[in-house]
Specification:
The protein is of the alpha/beta class. It folds into two domains: 269 residues, Mur-like, catalytic domain (UDP-N-acetylmuramoyl-L-alanine:D-glutamate ligase, 3-Layer(aba) Sandwich); 131 residues, Mur ligase, C-terminal domain (Protein-Tyrosine Phosphatase, Chain A, Alpha-Beta Complex). It is built from 16 helices and 14 strands. The strands form two sheets. The chain has an eight-stranded mixed beta sheet with strand order 4-3-2-5-1-6-7-8, with helices on both faces. Strands 9-10-14-11-12-13 form a six-stranded mixed beta sheet. Helix 4 packs antiparallel against helix 11, helix 8 packs parallel to helix 9 and helix 12 packs parallel to helix 13. The longest helix has 20 residues.
């Protein structure tokens, strides 16, 4: 995915994008108006709409991978991207190359040039994805929600072919989605539309009842994954994501009277690299794991899987703390401490080492016994991590941090 760095680094692309978009909050009404202006391309193709708190991106990738193995042409748009913006515009799991992306980008600008309102960056990217996938006449377009679902800019699909996916739900983005599981579930389940299919795991009674209620109101059918008979080399939470994707694609194949995927096809579908999701690389004889876990649900799953896969290994962790939720930060630290007592904490916020330390210690003294090195500068923090003699190095806590580090470490 390095094929876009030549112009992204120069800044030409983003300067142009900033010049044509608004910094105002996006609205679903404006997004609907924009899609109507484009003749509603999102309603002319089969859409698989993916919402949830944890596992959205991985599940989206696995759906696209399984569909590819089944012989379907597939568009994939994820949010956020990890390395480059072209991850938001993929055909059969391949991001558009620089030439094709710029060509599509310029053509789309021409199309929306006479739209009455100035749209946001996010609205631009989502609308461009729907437009491009329709233009390419893909069999399916897998669209990941940005935040929430009900009010998200992706929630403009109204055709009867829509398939909804809701991954595991937990507490996150509380300022936008609400502070309770019920409020957050209402937002996630807001992607369910009339007569759509809904694929999700059975979760807590509170979550299940809300999803079932919204599905019933929309005459939508709910499907839950069944047991999976093959043993694939995936950690526990990726097996869970893969099984959810597999249940959906199996349903598509059955409806179209197509054979189930064989064991080799399933193995190929599961073996894809998903950037920043339990991604393991070797660098100068060091094993480094990248994972963009940034909430308690994701950190808990990550810790459990690291402990299983790397039992007995010495581990050093580089963690980003950017959240203003001090209680959440301390809970994350305590979870990470189950893996290692040797932590480096950094931030993408503008502060020095002492300010970072004060920000952490001002909230809770329960973690003062953990060996923590506070290095506010992310590059200095990475240098310190790479000096470690530990057998495993883990980088987690922020996709924005991962983007910086993967750029430097994955050549």
């Amino acid at each position: 995915m390095n094929n876009m760095r030549s112009f992204v680094d120069i800044g030409i692309f983003f300067d142009k994008l900033r010049s044509i978009t608004s910094s105002a909050p996006y609205t679903l009404d404006r997004m609907r108006d924009l899609m109507a202006f484009l003749d509603n391309p999102q309603n002319k193709i089969k859409i698989i709409h993916v919402a949830g708190t944890s596992g959205k991106t991985s599940t989206s990738y696995y759906i696209a991978s399984l569909l590819k193995q089944a012989g379907y042409s597939t568009g994939l748009s994820i949010s956020p991207h990890v390395d480059e913006i072209n991850e938001r515009l993929q055909i059969n799991l391949t991001p558009l190359n620089e030439t094709d992306y710029i060509k599509a980008f310029n053509k789309f600008i021409e199309l929306i040039n006479t739209f009455d309102e100035k749209i946001t960056y996010y609205e631009f990217l989502i609308a461009m994805a729907f437009w491009y996938f329709n233009k390419q006449n893909v069999d399916y377009a897998v669209i990941e929600v940005g935040i929430g679902g009900l009010l998200d800019g992706t929630n403009v699909v109204n055709n009867l072919n829509k398939i909804c996916v809701i991954t595991d739900i937990g507490i996150d983005h509380t300022k936008l989605l609400g502070s309770t599981i019920s409020q957050i579930t209402m937002q996630k389940a807001g992607i369910i539309t009339k007569n759509s299919k809904v694929f999700c795991y059975k979760q807590s009674n509170e979550i299940n009842s809300i999803i079932q209620k919204i599905a019933k109101l929309n005459n939508a059918s709910v499907y839950h994954p069944k047991e999976y008979k093959y043993d694939l080399s995936l950690n526990d939470f990726q097996k869970r994501n893969f099984l959810l994707a597999y249940s959906l694609v199996s349903n598509i194949l059955a409806e179209n009277d197509k054979d189930e995927l064989n064991k080799l096809q399933l193995k190929k579908a599961a073996s894809i690299i998903i950037p920043g999701r339990f991604e393991v690389i070797k660098k100068d004889k060091k094993t480094i794991v990248f994972d963009g876990a940034h909430n308690l649900q994701k950190i808990r799953s990550l810790v459990n899987d690291i402990r299983k896969r790397y039992s007995g290994k010495s581990i050093r962790v580089l963690l980003t703390l950017d959240s203003d939720d001090l209680l959440k930060n301390n809970e994350i630290i305590l979870l990470i401490n189950q893996l290692s007592n040797n932590l480096i904490i950094t931030t993408l916020l503008d502060m020095d080492n002492n300010q970072l330390k004060d920000k952490f210690y001002s909230s809770n003294k329960s973690t003062t016994k953990i060996k923590i090195l506070f290095i506010a500068d992310p590059l200095s923090a990475l240098d310190e991590l790479l000096k470690s003699d530990d057998e495993l190095l883990l980088i987690t806590g922020s996709f924005y941090l991962l983007r910086k580090y993967r750029y430097l470490l994955i050549k």
